[in-house]
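Table S2 (continued). Query chain:
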Amino acid sequence: MKLLYIAAAFALACFALSVLAQTESTKRIDQRQQNQERRIEQGEKKGQLTPKEAARLEKGQARVQKMEDRAVADGKVTKKERARIEKAQDRQSKKIYRERHDKQHAK
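Corresponding output:
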């Protein structure tokens, strides 16, 4: 019986460590995602983005988030996965900038 409790505690500790590792491994990616979401929201509030542009940018952000979710699913984000996600974030950032600074404005 005591062995069962020890095994359960060990399993719980391993699970907790894997969850902690997931959040630590993508901290930078998560922060950047939040910043880009905020930029889109600010563009909408200031009228720099039309509803259609904002929806398209949000869809791109969701695509990047899906990439991150798939990378984290196995418990470890490899350098290759991280580089691919960051490159996608770079592309999204450029799109956000271009859409916010074009001649179209929300009415």
